[in-house]
Amino acid sequence: MKKNTIVTALLFSCLSAIALHAGPVIVFDIHGVLLRDDIASLVQRKIALLLAQNRGMGDNPLVKELNGLMTMCRPLGQPTAEYSPSLGVPYEIYALFAGIKSPDEVRAAVLAMITNTPLDPKKALMFEALIDTTFNNVERVSALVVIPTTAALLKSLLSDPNNQVYIYSNAPAEWVNQYRTLFPDIFAGIPHDHLMCSGSTGFIKPSKAAFEAICAEANCEISDIILIDDSQQNCETLQQLGGTALRCFTPKPLSGGASTTNTQPE
Fold first, then answer.
1. Backbone angles phi, psi at 211, to 5 degrees
2. Could you give all domains of the chain from N- to C-terminal order, each with its CATH number?
3. 3-state class (DSSP) for residue 25
4. Phi–psi pair at 166, nearest 5 degrees
5. Whole-number percent of the chain with pLDDT over 70
6. At what angle do helices 103-116 and 121-134 cross, to 10 degrees?
7. Burial grade of 62 (CB within 10 A; 0-12, 13-18, 19 or more)
8. Can you spell out the DSSP letters for 155-205?
9. Helix axes 208-218, 232-240, angle to 10 degrees
10. What phi and psi, each to the nearest 5 degrees, are found at residue 165?
11. By C-alpha distance, which of 140, 166, 212 is closest to 33?
12. pLDDT digits over 115-152, tens only?
């Protein structure tokens, strides 16, 4: 089967699943759904020993190890009452995405933790390169690649005025605002109040409060939400709350910067 045929079949599959719901609120994630983040590749070029993964930063063993170190050492101090380990991220990432701490504050705290923790010098260097690359805005943005299939699905849904389409990303507000400027073909059709993120609401997915924030904005029930997300935890949590999820697997890059996306109902 040709690539274009596969892409068309995927879009039909998604649209058919969405059409089964009356008056749905369709919510797209950004990272891993509309934009692919190649930060791991940037770090790999800096530190040859870094084990890069096709599925992105979330599955990178170095990232998992650093997350564990942050959870143990708590460079930002005692977590706030709203934070829960069940969210699956260390408090530092939660504080960044929820807008509690700025990227610069988190970067400084994590780098200080690395410096003050007895580590193998090679591992410390790898951690520092990872943090420097992640928080370097120029490099972070240069690592973003549009995922064409889901971008096309978003445009198709936006073309029907009867559809309620939202975006909700776990990200600082300044990042999401920057995406609107850098990728106008994707975000131009999204009304400002439909472009939501944890940095503005204070709630990160998969917390129930994040989905309730969408409901408050869209004047709907959680059961009305259809989430298109690459996170299994986000999809499973929404389903447990009564919503519908289409899990989008982060694509592998193809030659020329293109990519493929596998989207299936969870």
1. -70, -35
2. 9-37+144-265 (3.40.50.1000), 39-142 (no CATH)
3. strand
4. -125, 160
5. 76
6. 180
7. buried
8. HHHHTSTT-EEEEEESS-HHHHHHHHHH-HHHHTTS-GGGEEEHHHHS--T
9. 70
10. -115, 130
11. 166
12. 999 999 888 988 888 888 778 777 778 778 899 989 99
Would you say residue 82 has pLDDT above 80? yes
pTM, two decimals, is 0.72
Query: Smallest Cα–Cα separation from 170: which of 231, 241, 81?
Result: 231
CB 71 within 8 A of CB 88: no
Return the half-sphere exposure (C-beta side, CA atoms, 13 A cut-off) of residue 62.
Answer: 25
CB 149 within 8 Å of CB 248 = no
43 Cβ neighbours under 8 A, 6+ residues apart: 50, 52, 62, 129, 130, 133, 134
Candidates 10, 11, 33; CA nearest to 227 is 33
Name the more confident of 195 and 128.
195
8 A C-beta contact, residue 63 and residue 178: no
Beta bridge partners of 246: 228, 265
